């Protein structure tokens, strides 16, 4: 017990996700979790539990075809806890039991939802829980109107709830295997209501809980928003619009050519939003043009925003790097945006996150390539970036990878959910820092 108390906040959160994955693995490894009534195997169960807990969406088996209702509900529970953060869910039970939230728990909550201040964290957590319930509830109602006529009342409502939670938590798990295995939402590519509803859920779930709170307090007064919120919203809009236009251009003579203009635009929008980092698809990912696949990998690498269920290096990290690039070109000493100067540590942290994610992706791709020589390099790169970005999009190679590659992908998903920099801090945070500075000497850069 004393060892657990000595753990840092990041170490406790990492341990919490690990325990949740272990529990999920045990449940999904039971014969009672599959439709065939036989165990899916320990590694397959581990992969699926990790993908659900880390709200990724990469799957070895088609979710609808492999898992029965019990298995699907286990996956859904893992998605909801993983999306909200396990500390947020534990706090929910504390509210019900009327337990006082101590300083340690508040610190863990602050780290779990990735907010900057510990003050008001309990109030923010209540808003997160209420907001999640409202958005997932509204999404479920809207999707029910589209699913019930096709699937019947009971199955339609169940599918609506499942996909609303999966979309809001940016998980990408689906139950559309009834229309074809691994088909995701391709059967609804012409259903504007389903596409727009899922798109909005993904965006709202991926902008971050801190941004929610800021918007709720300041309404539509953009000038009053915190700098963090301004950067998140601006970067998100730019990425969505530019991604939509580029997908439309790259696919108008490919996967979109037989669709009317409205469907082309909706599917382009969906394909721009879902890589950051939801994992649903309305058009066949494997059949995308090379340009679209590369663009998708870039969007997956960037991901969503801090303090959300999304993965990737995050929009703020990407914005800081781009802004610092322009500052360097202009020979400005400071990094300025929206009439504010960023602290010096912001660029260091952004660079560290980007380099760690890129290094892990390339190293993992190298390992997987060495053990899966028959799989194309481009597909492997797509898979590893999808895993570390907790996206879930795939060109269809997941089920064909050997056990070694699946284990590597599992580690990447876990690392992506905890956070690459946080993952490194697990092993280094408690080490004593030296307060002695070495002499400075200039070097040539570039």
Tally the helices. Answer: 19
Q: Count the beta strands.
A: 2
Q: Which descriptor suits the 3D outline? A: globular
The number of distinct structural domains comes to: 1
How do the strands of the widest beta sheet line up side by side? 1-2
Query: Which spans of ≥5 residues are poorly predicted at pLDDT below 50?
Result: none
N-to-C order of helices and strands: HHHHHHHHHHHHHHHEEHHHH
Q: How large, in whole angstroms, is the Cα Rg? A: 22 Å
Largest sheet: 2 strands, antiparallel
Structural class: mainly alpha
User: What fraction of the residues are assigned to beta strands by DSSP?
Assistant: under 5%
Alpha carbon gap, first and last residue: 51 Å
Mean pLDDT: 87
* Helical amount: 55-70%
Walkthrough of the structure:
Helices cover 63% and strands 1% of the residues. By secondary structure, it is mainly α. It has one domain (8-426). It has a two-stranded antiparallel ribbon with strand order 1-2. Strand 1 and strand 2 (340-341) form a beta hairpin. The longest helix has 31 residues, at 121-151. The model has no long low-confidence stretch (mean pLDDT 87).
Q: What's the quick description here?
A:
The protein has helices at about 1-5, 10-30, 40-55, 65, 70-85, 85-95, 105-110, 120-150, 155-170, 190-205, 210-220, 225-250, 260-275, 290-300, 315-330, 345-370, 375-390, 405-420, 420-430; strands spanning about 335, 340.
